[in-house]
């Protein structure tokens, strides 16, 4: 290479192909000490990551310095989960480097797809809540919001799912096995997080009481930072994840007593705090270690935030102008008493001053109305682990209850509103604490926010009407269209320009092409290619052959009774029975794909997985139907698998019992990628229907009100079973072992739940309406022009569901931050 060209290269920062290529080579050689012969897929991937990181660092440092200089109000997003998935494509796209990197990678002699696939998903979340936090990070950076995401750096994220004989098997997720090249360890950014101990009260000369939390057992939180670039705007925010390590490297006393090994033995108990993500989605389990994790996150993050504040300010009353804290569900709601403790016990503010600050700074997002999900910690456990916080919570409760009065002779009102329940073994209700201590409380879709005010938080909505608001969830169009469906993104950009990537409302302009023959043709080809790609992936990874000309009917999400995977598999059985009855029935070929993890302790959900796999086994091996119907359960659902499946979907299954899915975000991803939705009027499905129009979505089933009426008027699943022949046949088959011939009783718990235990999720109540709606779906699919027209209209009307819009709403309605 000529010298002048060599000088122009800047392998560390150059945004051109030559610089990038040289940087990859240098990292492979000088950082990893490998060459083209000895390097593994991981080495290749890592050398690319390091080259990308080089291009992030200047921007990262500059962004943080700017926030500091401009005294920007910071948004502190506290979340126990971040389901971020792979980062390479996301980083390259946001840096505007994807094509440059692709060329550079090929020039080095690596394969781009292999490099991408070498990355292990960061699966630090269960499902929607964690993925939402990840989409919000992307949007906050893209909008230039001075935000920091705080979370826990679990050694093990969500378990890997294997399927063995149709059953889910959990395996540890070893995502850190070879290190995490997107993370920078900051050993000097660490804080002591205290636990246990006792509260010592002393009176000062002026007669004022001081409370000291003493004799604590301390754990150290160490920061690990991951850069979060905005979309081509040179902003790089920070995701700071805390890892637990034992406080003192060794115990000096034992050391001096000659118990050397004892003294330096690693304090496993402390390090356990960041060991593993709890794999429960929407169920509260009450384990002490989980409470420790929650306080660990809150304490380290608030210490960090407060240290940042104190660098510039000494008047704590300025906190609400400098900080907005957002709690992603109740999990971080100990931030309320913790901030009170810091302000009173450490900064010596009076209660009223501290309370005024806290209640102008904290905010809480509610994610579910389901009672089993609501966190309620036994006060015995809390007072043992966090004695000072328990005192403070008691005092918050006492003062709050003084403001609550009985209305209309409703003597239970006070008891319902207490933070600490009035029972033999009192529990701390984290939702109530969140409402009392927060400035704003939001639900995550219009319907959910409404129901929140009418049901679980009715009393609070009357008491604090000004606190309640809605922010409908969203998804980042960078990952969920530009990245996962490049061909569709390019088609759209070709017709309406590229600005939609950050202004998703502009997709509306695509609507004019809904009936355009050219556009439809290309749109159809892209969908076919995506389906083919998924089919190839399925064949490569499982050996199963699927027909890309069939309807790809997809339900992917956590396995949960309220999400009703059971209803979808029952529909497959209906189609199967119809085809068995009449192999020449005019049924459109269909491939029903499921994926999702069940919580390891959720027996019924695991049985649903087994049922899906057994039904698949019978159907797929029946030569009379296998050309028309195929059912598959793809193992190990993850962000990366979602990115492969969603662009290939024709039909999106969003079939939860009305009132139970707070928002859903999977529903948005599918529609944005040109799938049509079959769904209930639940969560954000309601808003999707408003946006795309009722003719362009397949809505079925009971509404929230109808569900309630039905329950009140003595819902009888058995009557429905008796009166619907097709339904009866399906249930009988499941019950009698048609799908489990070697173990005929295997699925009895399922039929019992449906017929004898009241069918709480009203699968039978919506079954007929669902099956009939599926016939409409099929008829529509046969009319290719109509189907594509509707699909294009769906894409065109997804602007509302950009997480950029969600973040703008948070800025305006909650954080009081300008964007
Ligand atoms: C979007 C997403 C979810 C949430 O899906 P819902 O259908 O809204 O429950 C869960 N897991 C992953 C990996 C996702 O990408």
From TrEMBL:
InterPro entries: Glycg_phsphrylas (IPR011833), Glyco_trans_35 (IPR000811), Pyridoxal_P_attach_site (IPR035090). Its EC number is 2.4.1.1. PROSITE patterns: PHOSPHORYLASE. It catalyses: [(1->4)-alpha-D-glucosyl](n) + phosphate = [(1->4)-alpha-D-glucosyl](n-1) + alpha-D-glucose 1-phosphate. Its cofactor is pyridoxal 5'-phosphate. Keywords: Carbohydrate metabolism, Glycosyltransferase, Pyridoxal phosphate, Transferase. Belongs to the glycogen phosphorylase family. Allosteric enzyme that catalyzes the rate-limiting step in glycogen catabolism, the phosphorolytic cleavage of glycogen to produce glucose-1-phosphate, and plays a central role in maintaining cellular and organismal glucose homeostasis. Phosphorylase is an important allosteric enzyme in carbohydrate metabolism. Enzymes from different sources differ in their regulatory mechanisms and in their natural substrates. However, all known phosphorylases share catalytic and structural properties. This is Alpha-1,4 glucan phosphorylase. The lineage of its organism: Bacteria, Pseudomonadati, Balneolota, Balneolia, Balneolales.
């Amino acid at each position: 290479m000529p010298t002048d060209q060599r000088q122009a290269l800047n392998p560390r920062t150059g945004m051109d192909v030559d610089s990038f290529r040289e940087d990859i080579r240098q990292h492979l050689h000088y950082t990893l000490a490998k060459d083209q012969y000895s390097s593994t897929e991981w080495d290749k991937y890592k050398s690319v990551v390091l080259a990308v990181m080089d291009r992030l660092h200047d921007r990262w440092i500059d962004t943080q310095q700017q926030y500091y200089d401009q005294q920007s109000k910071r948004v502190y997003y506290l979340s126990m989960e971040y389901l971020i998935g792979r980062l390479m494509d996301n980083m390259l796209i946001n840096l505007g480097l994807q094509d440059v990197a692709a060329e550079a990678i090929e020039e080095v002699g690596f394969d781009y797809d292999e490099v991408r696939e070498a990355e292990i998903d960061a699966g630090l979340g269960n499902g929607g809540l964690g993925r939402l936090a990840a989409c919000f990070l992307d949007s906050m950076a893209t909008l230039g919001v001075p935000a920091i995401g705080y979370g826990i750096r679990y050694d093990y994220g969500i378990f890997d799912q294997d399927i063995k004989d149709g059953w889910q098997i959990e395996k540890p997720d070893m995502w850190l096995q070879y290190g995490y090249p997107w993370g920078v360890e900051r050993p000097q950014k660490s804080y002591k997080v205290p636990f246990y101990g006792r509260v010592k009260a002393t009176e000062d000369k002026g007669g004022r009481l001081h409370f000291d939390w003493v004799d604590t057992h301390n754990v150290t939180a160490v920061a690990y930072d991951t850069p979060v670039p905005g979309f081509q705007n040179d902003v790089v925010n920070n995701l700071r994840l805390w890892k637990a390590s034992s406080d003192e490297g060794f115990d000096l006393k034992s050391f001096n007593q000659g118990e050397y090994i004892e003294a330096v033995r690693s304090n496993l108990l402390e390090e356990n705090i960041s060991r593993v993500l709890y794999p429960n989605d929407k169920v509260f389990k009450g384990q002490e270690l989980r409470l420790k994790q929650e306080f660990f996150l809150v304490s380290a993050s608030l210490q960090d935030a407060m240290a940042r504040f104190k660098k510039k300010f000494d008047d704590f009353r300025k906190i609400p102008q400098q900080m907005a804290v957002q709690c992603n569900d109740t999990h971080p709601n100990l931030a309320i008493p913790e901030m009170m403790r810091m302000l009173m016990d450490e900064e010596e503010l009076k209660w009223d001053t501290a309370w005024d600050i806290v209640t102008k700074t904290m905010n809480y997002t509610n994610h579910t109305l389901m009672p089993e999900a609501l966190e309620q910690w036994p006060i015995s456990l809390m007072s043992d682990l966090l004695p000072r916080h328990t005192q403070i919570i008691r005092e918050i409760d006492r003062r709050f209850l003084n403001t609550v009065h009985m209305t209309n002779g409703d003597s239970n009102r006070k008891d319902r509103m207490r933070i600490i329940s009035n029972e033999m073994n009192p529990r701390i209700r984290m939702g109530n604490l969140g409402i009392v201590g927060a400035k704003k409380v939001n639900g995550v879709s219009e319907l959910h926010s409404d129901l929140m005010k009418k049901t679980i938080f009715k009393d609070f909505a009357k008491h604090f009407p000004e606190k309640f608001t809605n922010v409908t969830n969203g998804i980042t169009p960078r990952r969920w269209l530009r990245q996962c469906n490049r061909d569709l993104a390019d088609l759209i950009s070709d017709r309406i320009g590229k600005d939609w990537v950050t202004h998703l409302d502009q997709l509306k302009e695509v609507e004019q092409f809904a009936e355009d023959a050219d556009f439809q043709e290309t749109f159809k080809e892209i969908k076919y290619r995506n389906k083919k790609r998924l089919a190839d992936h399925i064949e490569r990874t499982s050996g199963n052959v699927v027909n890309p000309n069939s309807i790809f009917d997809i339900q992917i999400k956590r396995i949960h009774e309220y999400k009703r995977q059971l209803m979808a598999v029952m529909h497959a059985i209906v189609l199967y029975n119809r085809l068995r009855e009449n192999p020449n029935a005019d049924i459109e070929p269909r491939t029903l794909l499921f994926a999702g993890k069940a919580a390891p302790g959720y027996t019924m959900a695991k049985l649903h997985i087994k049922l899906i796999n057994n039904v698949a086994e019978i159907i797929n091996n029946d030569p009379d139907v296998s050309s028309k119907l195929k059912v598959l359960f793809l193992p190990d659902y993850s962000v990366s698998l979602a990115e492969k499946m969603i662009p290939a979907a024709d039909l999106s299954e969003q079939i939860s019992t009305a009132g139970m899915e707070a928002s859903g975000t999977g529903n948005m991803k599918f529609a944005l990628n040109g799938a049509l939705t079959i769904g209930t009027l639940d969560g954000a499905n309601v808003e999707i229907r408003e946006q795309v129009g009722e003719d362009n979505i397949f809505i079925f089933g009971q509404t929230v009100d109808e569900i309630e009426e039905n329950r009140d008027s003595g819902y009888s699943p058995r009557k429905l079973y008796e009166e619907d022949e097709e339904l009866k046949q399906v249930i009988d088959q499941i019950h009698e072992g048609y799908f489990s011939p070697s173990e005929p009783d295997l699925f009895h718990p399922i039929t019992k739940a449906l017929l004898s235990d009241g069918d709480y999720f009203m699968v039978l109540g919506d079954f007929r309406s669902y099956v009939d709606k599926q016939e409409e779906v099929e008829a529509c699919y046969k009319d290719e022009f109509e189907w594509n027209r509707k699909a294009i209209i769906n894409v065109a009307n997804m602007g509302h569901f950009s997480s950029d819009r969600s973040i703008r709403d948070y800025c305006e309605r909650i954080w009081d931050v300008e964007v």
